[in-house]
Structures are given as structure tokens and as C-alpha cells.
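Memo to structure team: turn this sequence into C-alpha cells by end of day. - J.P.
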Amino acid sequence: MESLLHYSPIIIAIMVFLIQQRIVVTPEQLEKKHREILEDVEEKFVTQHSFNDLKEQFCDMKEKIDKIYDCIIAVK
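Reply from structure team:
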């Protein structure tokens, strides 16, 4: 216990340094950064569900174009 009291000023100084340099974060800071990352991701990337819907639409368009092409060839 005496050794802990002897080193307590050093421990306090190290803790203050870690907090000032933002090496140790609080849960509020972590939550704020998490929200910022989610907002950036929403702006830059598309969801998997939206991507799959768009892919299906392209497949449908391709099928329709193929049908139109077949109809044009059949008329000639």
C-alpha cells in the first residue's frame, strides 16, 4: 500500500497525459465518432439491398431488350 502512495503522483500525471492526448476516450466520444462514421458510410456507399434491387432491374431491362430485339428480327 505504501508503494502505491509513493507512485500515486506519477500515476495521476500519466492518466492526465493520456486523457489530454485523447489516447483514452469516453463512451460519449466513442458514440459520437461511431455516428460520424455511419453518416460517412451512408453518404459514400450503397446498401446491399439497394444493390440487389438495382441488379434485378438491370436483368429485367436486359430481358425486355432481348424480347424487343427478337420481335424486330422476326418482323424482317
